[in-house]
Amino acid sequence: MNRLLIFFCFLFFSSLSAQNLSKDTIQLSDVWIEKNDKKPKIKKIKIGTYDLTRTDNILFFTEDPVYYFVDSLPEGKLQNITLFFSEASIDPKIGFIDSQTFKIEKTEFEVTLFEIGDDYKVGPKINSEPIHINLPETKSYRVKKIVLDVAPYNIITKRFYIYLNKKTKTNCEKCYYYAPVLYKTPDGYHYIYNNNNRVYAKPDKACVFCYGLQMIVKTLTQDY
User: Fold this and answer.
1) Cα–Cα–Cα angle for 89, 114, 84, rounded to 5 degrees
2) What distance in Å separates the CA atoms of residue 90 and residue 61, rounded to the nearest whole number?
3) Rounded Cα–Cα distance for residues 67 and 122 (Å)
4) Are 73 and 159 in contact (CB under 8 A)?
5) How far is CA 174 from the centre of its chain?
6) What is the rounded distance in angstroms from the CA atom of residue 69 to the CA atom of residue 191?
7) How far is CA 94 from CA 45, 54, 102, in A?
8) What is the structure's pLDDT at 22?
9) Contact criterion met (CB below 8 Å) for 110 and 167
10) CB within 8 A of 54, min separation 6: which ones?
11) How many whole angstroms separate alpha carbon 201 and alpha carbon 29?
12) 3-state class (DSSP) for residue 60
């Protein structure tokens, strides 16, 4: 009899305990944790068409900043950025290049990267100190290629603005200078100029001044 009483008491308290436990238990839906075991690799992304060596006098000879828009990169750490430069003159009437007298003047730039804010606004600086580019005087009209090492800045991003601050005075009308090589974009502006345009906006059907900055970006990524 005593054993039977103890047995029913045990069942009773077990039932109460189970009810209390059910009240204090929070049921969670399935939680999946995905782990990417891929080893990061260097991925090269070409930005531009590479069909023509194109520069634009308005964007190069202006004293207002031009912020070129770069996006659609794989998530990763930027390693280096390759920029291209070709000759440009403030006077479009110079005509064909005379190989005997042709000369590109020394041209200097300071390069700064910026974050992209809401509504494609220019955000904070990414590199606190600008990266210097010094293109010496030359009589060669070949496209100049410059590789910028940005790995020390530990930039992890998929997009950014790049600003090439021209430090050289370019007011000589009969002179040639180094200007960044651009490419024609079919989907609107890929830059912000004097806050007078919006990225991806198309001013007209022909999109005459729709350009982007031609470059090669190498990034360390697991997205491959």
Assistant:
1) 35
2) 7
3) 8
4) yes
5) 34
6) 5
7) 35, 17, 11
8) 46
9) yes
10) 181, 182, 183, 184, 211, 214
11) 43
12) helix
Chain-centroid distance, C-alpha 129:
17
At 166, list the tokens. 């021209």
Task: Give the C-alpha separation, 123 to 76, whole Å.
Answer: 19
Query: What tokens were used for 25?
Result: 């238990």
**182 three-class SS:** strand
Tokens 């520069």 sit at which residue? 55
Q: 78: which 2 tokens?
A: 């930027």
Tell me the β-bridge partners of 125. Answer: 114
Is 118 in a helix, a strand, or coil?
helix
Copy the structure tokens of residue 163: 């600003």
Q: What's phi and psi for 222, nearest 5 deg?
A: -100, 0
Give every CB contact of residue 45 below 8 A, 6+ residues apart in sequence.
73, 74, 216, 217, 218, 219
Mean pLDDT of successive 10-residue stretches along the chain, which has 224 residues = 49 49 51 71 93 86 94 95 94 65 93 94 93 95 93 94 96 92 93 85 86 97 90
Which amino acid does the sequence have at 12? F
